[in-house]
Amino acid sequence: xxxxxxxxxxxxxxxxxxxxxxxxxxxxxxxxxxxxxxxxxxxxxxxxxxxxxxxxxxxxxxxxxxxxxxxxxxxxxxxxxxxx
Length: 84
Description:
- This protein has helices at 33-38, 44-61, 66-69.
- It is mostly helical.
- It comes from Marivibrio halodurans.
């Protein structure tokens, strides 16, 4: 079985672009300076790894949302949404 290619992964930029001094991370999207510079030429696999690292940084910093913490599970066709 062959793996399907990943769809294009959009930039995690939220338009609040400023690097904090200590960690050299953007205060808006939490990417490092290196990740920001790499983004435009990164493969989708690398972009996915960056997005997963950002998610962990949000959790570690306490900037989490319900979507960061809820388990992911795909619904089967015809199955009602969770909670119904």
